[in-house]
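User: quick one, fold this
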Amino acid sequence: MEFSKKLITWYLQNKRSMPWRETKDPYRIWLSEIILQQTRVAQGLPYYLSFTKTFSSVFELANAREEEVLKLWQGLGYYSRARNLHTTAKYIANDLNGVFPDNYKDLLNLKGVGDYTASAIASICYNEVTPVVDGNVYRVLSRYFGINTPINSTDGVKEFKKLAIELIDHKNPADYNQAIMEFGALQCKPKNPYCIVCPLNDSCEGLKQGIVEKLPVKLKKIKIKKRYFNYLVFIINGKQTVIKQRTDNGIWKGLYEFPLIEAEENNIDAIISHDILRDMINEAKYEITSFKDKPIVHKLSHQHLYTRFYIIKLDTMPKMHGNQKVVNFKDIHNYPVPILLGNFIDSFFKV
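Assistant:
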C-alpha cells in the first residue's frame, strides 16, 4: 500500500540513531520497549544505556536484587514497570533458560508486556506481521484518516487496531512499525506538526478538513486526586536519619521514604500534635522546622502530591515502627527513592 511505502521511505531517510535499532536481540528490544513506555526517548536513552551496561544479559538482570533494579530505575516513574521487568527477567532466565518467546501470542504472557510491547518485539526481532499501536500511531492514523473516535474508548481501541492490521507492510513489518512510531514522534507531532513538508500531506484527511490539531480525540481524563504528604526527616545526633520501605500496592511500592504523615493539616502545629510524631519522639527533646514555606507539588498521572518535609533534630533514637530503620547520612543515597525524595535528599544530604 502507498501509505506504508511512503512511511518506510521517510523512516529510512529520517530515523534517529538509537542503540536498540542496531540489534535484533530480544533482551535489548524488550528492555528498550519497557523503558520507553510512558517515557520520551531523550529521557529513556540514558536509562537504557545504564541498564545494558549494568546488566548485559537477562541472566544478570534476573540475579540482581530488586533494590538494585529500582535504584537504577529511579527518576523514570511508573515503578511497577521496573518490578515487572525484574519478575519477567527471572522467569525468562530460570523457567525459559534465557530464551525469549519468539511470537506475539507467547510474548503477551510475560508480566508487564501488553499488546504494543509484544507487537514491537515480535515484529522487530522475529519479523512477525503484527502491528504496534501506541500514542504516536493513534495520532498518525486518526489524522491521516480523519477519525474522531476517542482513542481511549473500547470502540476506538478496536477500530484503530483493525486499521493498523490492514495497513502494516507484510514484507517488512519491523521497519513499518518503527517507521510509523518515529513518524509520529518527529513529523506528525502532538503540537505544530510539519504538515507543509509531510510526505502524506496530499492525502491526509485531517489536513484537508483543517482538524489536524483536534486529533486524536480523547475522552475526558480521570479526575485528579489531591494527597498531602508530610515527611518526618529525623536528624539524629547530626549524622543519622530514619527511612522505611513502602510495601503496599499503591504508588512507589518497594521504594524508600521518610516516616510519613498523610494529612491535609500540614502546618507545624498539626504535625507536632500528630500521634505518629508524638509516638516516635516520646518524651525526648527535639527541634522541628519546615524545609520550605510552601508545599512541593509533585504531579503523577492521576494524583497530585502536596509535600512538605519537616526537619526534626534530636539527640536520642526515636521509637521505631514496622520496617523503619536508622541509616547514616552517607548511606542514604544508596537507597532507591521516588524522584520527589531523591531531589530533596540531593539538596539536603549533600555528600
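User: anything notable?
Assistant: The chain has a mean pLDDT of 92.
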